[in-house]
């Protein structure tokens, strides 16, 4: 009997809403599990929420064993108090996208290193199946919410690719705030065998109008990108689509980057307010780019590509104006000095968690938990290993 194959077959045969139930039944049958639970990270990346016990108190990402396993992305084992059992805390992650933590309780005698590896495989399987199942059920998205999303936020979250992604050459993480009421800020990325394209957009205005504007811009950029054209023409075609719709009354600030995975050469189009910063070693600096017109401001705008290179170990961070224009209760702007300090203070964090840490620092600076629309994207460059 191949235990992994049996578990895979059971989970993949389950209805989209019953993945956890199918996995629980299989783990009880095959490994003698005493309990199997799944906690999913909420939209704000602050807590972990139980999938099938929504009324349970959420678990802190900072002050719980499950939260620490989520943050470290390492499987952990924890002895159950007053019981001869062990909890296995297993990250549920798909290509760098951190979904949550699977907890499997086993009797102590059955908790072996080989079984632990099988459980990690089960957590990986569950993550992939959840992403597929989300096309057909709202269960997993509902479970991530600590409060109701505004309609504008719902539209923006549905537009995103993920919150993190890893590959041999790079790792990306990004976060939007306020998570449950975002308006016009957005990020997007896509990679193939040869290149990675990253976009940060900021539609003007608030609420539904800002979200609709950003939706138009992101989909216009995707349409052009999927046609196989360069980022200058992507910007020009999106610019025309927005102008045709709004005749210059609304526009979108955009920063577009295209990375050659083999060489580290980067092309960039700066069409508006998002800022680009680089950390190389201990040096942190803002990359000064040639400012070009935001998308949709004028008819038939033309865009030019600038170039620079990234080296293995470099970190790039992209910020919307809701970050660097934020002010303290004393009226002092967050500005470049605080940005540089925040980048330095988060340099040891992985790309997937650095944006959340920057936004937490920003919230403390502002003296309020409620942020204006703010976006942080972090990209760590590893480069391609040469044979």
Automatic annotation (TrEMBL):
InterPro entries: Bact_Sigma-Reg, PPM-type-like_dom_sf, PPM-type_phosphatase-like_dom. Keywords: Hydrolase. It comes from the Bacteria. Residues 167-381 form the PPM-type phosphatase domain. Residues 54-78 are annotated as: Disordered. One of its GO terms (molecular function) is phosphatase activity. This is Serine/threonine-protein phosphatase. It comes from Streptomyces globisporus.
């Amino acid at each position: 009997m191949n235990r992994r194959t049996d578990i895979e077959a059971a989970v993949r045969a389950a209805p989209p809403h019953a993945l956890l139930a199918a996995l629980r039944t299989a783990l009880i049958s095959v490994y003698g599990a005493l309990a199997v639970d799944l906690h999913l990270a909420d939209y704000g990346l602050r807590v972990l929420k139980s999938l099938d016990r929504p009324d349970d108190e959420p678990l802190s990402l900072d002050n719980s064993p499950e939260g620490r396993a989520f943050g470290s992305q390492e499987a952990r084992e924890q002895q159950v108090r007053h019981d001869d059992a062990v909890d296995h805390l297993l990250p549920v992650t798909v290509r760098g996208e951190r979904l949550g933590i699977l907890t499997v309780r086993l009797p102590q005698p059955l908790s072996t290193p080989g079984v632990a590896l099988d459980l990690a495989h089960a957590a990986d399987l569950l993550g992939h199946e959840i992403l597929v199942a989300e096309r057909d059920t709202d269960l997993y998205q509902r479970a991530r919410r600590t409060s109701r999303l505004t309609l504008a936020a719902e539209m923006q979250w549905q537009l995103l690719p993920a919150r993190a992604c890893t590959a041999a050459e790079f790792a990306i993480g990004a976060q939007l705030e306020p998570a449950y009421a975002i308006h016009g800020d957005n990020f997007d990325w896509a990679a193939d065998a040869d290149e990675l394209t990253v976009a940060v957009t900021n539609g003007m205005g608030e609420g539904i109008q800002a979200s609709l504007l950003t939706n138009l811009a992101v989909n216009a950029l995707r349409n052009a990108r999927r046609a196989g054209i360069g980022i200058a023409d992507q910007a020009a075609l999106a610019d025309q689509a927005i102008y045709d719709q709004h005749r210059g009354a609304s526009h979108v600030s955009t920063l577009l980057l295209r990375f050659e995975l083999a060489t580290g050469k980067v092309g960039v189009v700066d069409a508006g307010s998002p800022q680009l910063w680089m950390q190389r070693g201990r040096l942190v600096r803002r990359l000064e780019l040639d400012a070009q017109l935001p998308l949709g401001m004028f008819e038939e705008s033309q865009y030019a590509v600038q170039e620079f290179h990234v080296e293995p170990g470099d970190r790039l961070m992209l910020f919307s104006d809701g970050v660097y224009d934020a002010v303290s209760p004393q009226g002092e702007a967050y500005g470049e000095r605080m940005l540089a300090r925040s980048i330095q203070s988060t340099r040891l964090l992985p790309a997937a968690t650095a944006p959340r840490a920057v936004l937490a620092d920003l919230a403390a600076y502002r003296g309020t938990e409620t942020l204006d629309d703010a976006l942080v994207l972090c990209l760590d460059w590893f480069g391609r290993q040469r044979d």
